[in-house]
User: Which sequence fits this backbone?
């Protein structure tokens, strides 16, 4: 197997497990890199979550108690950037690294050294982001980035040098994600075990194939847009600077050409994970494998062409907004197809309700709710009222927390026994699940009402008439936050020990990864496995 | 080594997609203005119209009056004073109107500025024809110099009935980045206030839309 030779050639000729810090710093092993991705994303989750706790603590009462307005806006900005780029994307990339080679019977990722590079670029980006947050507190540091994650000019042209560090953060993140995406695509296209066609592939691989293509298309324009911002700030160009004839709205188009498909980048890997969990615990093959793949492709393709629904209030022509409205609503068809396929998979299945399955069912319910408010926001007259209100905040948290984050949690519980060889504590897993569900809904459900009543987002203070719902929301967020201490405890406990997990781990699980021991040895599938017909999804 | 070569080739192909898309992003700037020019997405705010069709001045609905408000702003980094000589005007759609704006350079050196117009509500933009305007042209003011500038415009009689009030807003900006940085109000409080100000004008626009609906 040639891939194997290439993958291990640089390890000095010996095939043992490298020891000490070299094992991690120089790692080209997909399992180790996957683990590192997951650890970094967990740290970032707590960093971004801590910011959310500060934001909710400040909003517990009207008035300004804990934070300065600029710092508050900086927290709002960085909470978003850290959660999107630091927590969700690396966690999904970590799972891709761990699972895709195991699922398709490849010895490793196709380009193992590039894999190492994309991981360490992520760490560099995280450090750069921290610098951008610290700089405003130093003398001469200027204002913090207070634009929100959209980084709209003219404000982003005016803020201090922390903006420059943020621009470099975006560059590094972009490089990291693009390299990882290229690697994933090449792995999936070139390294499948003999006999496994694209349409025999596990659905998680399909979800990542679409995601990786999306990333390759959307990240370069985003990197270009922030580079143009950098030029406007320092080199006298006027891409977005109206004084020199530029148009700030061009940035909005470039940003949302990235920003909207990014939502599907966050969503699709988690949907792929559900496509494994639901068949496992319903003990039935996935309903409508082909239409699920088709739906993912459709989401990816249509998702690239609907970005301006974020810009209804900027004065686009009626024809343009009408097109974007229709396009946006059309996306709910393939997304609905995914959801219905998962529900149909459960239909008449022999279901059991372990933690991953509980998450899967919770996700289907709550994500559908986020999708429904999405259709409300997609309609132009509605959006003009809801725009920039807490209704939008409630909507995208309902879409992204179940759609992306909880899907990853489900994946953690589903695969943790495979990764560590130990079963997690089912009782603690269920406690975590219920704390998350109660905390999450308590936090974000009242925000719909706040938004409809007119509370604007991204402002440190609010009208006292919004106090009650904000208090409920803050209390919910503290429950949601505390739940993650349980999460951390479960993970640490499972890594350190617990009941042994067999190869199969879950009774109903199908696929190559379950033919390996738990935890899998350092090198797996150095000789490609024989693919028998009747793969779980085929 | 065949597999390795295949992988490298696939990776390079994907990388070239990345490079091309990155380049296309920069091309978006000229393409975007070209698109706006060709499709006339935002006509009134942009170009100065051709000579007015004065042939039909008296078709103007004499009984209809529309309020036009004039709003002036100076962006951060430009030490100028900028005011309309009249704050608001009742105009008959179809009649040409002339208004004047005063601008003064408060700095001790020559500064070049440039004004960008905007019309609120945006639905009225295509019915607002400027036949003479100081906007988009570079205005050079010597130290302490003041100047009066003229805008001639006509509100089209086709203006929808539900719009009774519109605002013509100008923002003067410093043309030179270095000079803008020199005169920028750097401290935190002011720049935050500047951001708030931008938000307020946005709200103002929304109110205007609502008012127009109610009237």
Assistant:
């Amino acid at each position: 197997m040639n891939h194997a030779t290439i993958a291990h050639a640089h390890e000095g000729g010996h095939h043992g497990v490298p020891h000490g810090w070299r094992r991690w710093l120089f790692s080209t092993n997909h399992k180790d890199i996957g683990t590192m991705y997951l650890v970094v994303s967990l740290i970032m989750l707590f960093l971004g979550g801590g910011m959310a706790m500060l934001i909710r603590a400040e909003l517990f009462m009207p008035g300004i108690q804990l934070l300065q307005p600029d710092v508050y806006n900086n927290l709002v900005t960085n909470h978003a950037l850290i959660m999107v780029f630091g927590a969700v994307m690396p966690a999904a990339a970590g799972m891709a690294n761990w699972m895709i080679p195991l699922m398709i019977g490849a010895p490793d990722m196709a380009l193992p050294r590039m894999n190492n590079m994309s991981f360490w670029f992520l760490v560099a980006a995280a450090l750069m982001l921290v610098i951008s947050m610290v700089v405003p507190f130093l003398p001469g540091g200027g204002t913090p980035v207070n634009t929100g994650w959209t980084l709209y000019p003219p404000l982003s042209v005016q803020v201090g040098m922390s903006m420059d560090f943020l621009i470099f953060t975006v560059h590094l993140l972009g490089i990291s994600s693009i390299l990882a995406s290229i690697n994933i695509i090449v792995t999936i296209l070139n390294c499948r075990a003999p006999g496994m066609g694209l349409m025999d592939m596990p659905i998680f691989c399909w979800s990542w194939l679409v995601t990786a293509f999306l990333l390759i298309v959307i990240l370069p324009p985003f990197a270009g847009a922030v580079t143009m911002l950098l030029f406007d700030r320092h080199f006298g160009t006027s891409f977005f600077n109206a004084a020199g004839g530029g148009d700030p709205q061009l940035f909005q188009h470039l940003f949302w050409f990235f920003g909207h498909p990014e939502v599907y980048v966050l969503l699709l890997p988690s949907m792929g994970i559900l496509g494994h969990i639901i068949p496992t615990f319903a003990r039935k093959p996935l309903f409508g494998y082909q239409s699920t793949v088709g739906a993912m492709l459709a989401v990816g393709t249509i998702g690239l062409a609907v970005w301006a629904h974020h810009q209804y209030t900027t004065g686009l022509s009626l024809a343009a907004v009408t097109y974007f409205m229709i396009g946006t609503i059309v996306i709910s068809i393939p997304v609905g197809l995914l959801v219905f396929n998962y529900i149909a998979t459960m239909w008449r299945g022999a279901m059991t309700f372990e933690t991953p399955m509980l998450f899967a069912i919770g996700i289907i319910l709550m994500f559908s709710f986020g999708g429904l408010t999405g259709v409300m926001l997609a309609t132009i007259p509605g959006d003009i009222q809801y725009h920039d209100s807490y209704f939008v905040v409630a909507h995208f948290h309902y879409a992204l927390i179940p759609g992306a984050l909880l899907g990853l949690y489900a994946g953690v519980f589903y695969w943790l026994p495979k990764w560590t060889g130990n079963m997690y504590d089912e009782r603690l897993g269920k406690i975590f699940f219920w704390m998350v569900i109660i905390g999450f809904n308590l936090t974000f459900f009242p925000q719909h009402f706040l938004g409809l009543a007119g509370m604007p987002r991204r402002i440190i203070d609010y009208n006292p008439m919004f106090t009650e719902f904000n208090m409920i929301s803050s209390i919910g967020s503290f429950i949601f936050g505390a739940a993650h201490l349980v999460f951390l405890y479960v993970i640490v406990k499972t890594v350190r020990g617990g009941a042994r997990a067999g190869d199969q781990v879950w009774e109903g699980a199908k696929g190559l990864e379950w033919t390996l021991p738990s935890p899998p040895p350092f090198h797996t599938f150095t000789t490609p496995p024989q693919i028998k017909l009747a793969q779980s999804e085929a | 080594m065949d597999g390795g070569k295949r992988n490298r080739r696939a990776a390079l192909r994907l990388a070239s997609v990345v490079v091309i898309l990155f380049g296309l992003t920069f091309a978006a700037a000229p393409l975007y203005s070209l698109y706006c020019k060709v499709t006339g997405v935002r006509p009134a705010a942009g170009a100065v119209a051709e000579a007015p069709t004065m042939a039909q001045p008296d078709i103007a609905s004499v009984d209809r009056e529309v309020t036009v408000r004039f709003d002036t702003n100076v962006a951060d980094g430009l030490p100028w004073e900028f005011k309309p000589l009249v704050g608001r005007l009742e105009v008959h759609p179809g009649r040409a109107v002339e208004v004047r704006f005063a601008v003064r350079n408060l700095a001790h050196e020559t500064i070049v500025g440039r004004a960008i117009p905007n019309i609120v509500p945006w639905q009225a933009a295509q019915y607002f024809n400027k036949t003479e305007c100081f906007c988009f042209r570079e205005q050079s003011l010597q130290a302490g110099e003041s100047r009066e500038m003229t805008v001639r415009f006509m509100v089209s009689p086709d203006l929808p009935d539900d719009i009774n009030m519109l605002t013509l807003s100008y923002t003067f900006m410093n043309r030179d980045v270095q000079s803008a940085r020199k005169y920028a109000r750097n401290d935190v409080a002011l720049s935050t206030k500047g951001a708030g100000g931008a938000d307020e004008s946005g709200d103002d626009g929304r109110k205007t839309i609502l008012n127009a609906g109610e009237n």
Summary: Chain B has four helices and nine strands. Residues 60 and 94 of chain B are 5 Å apart (CA to CA).
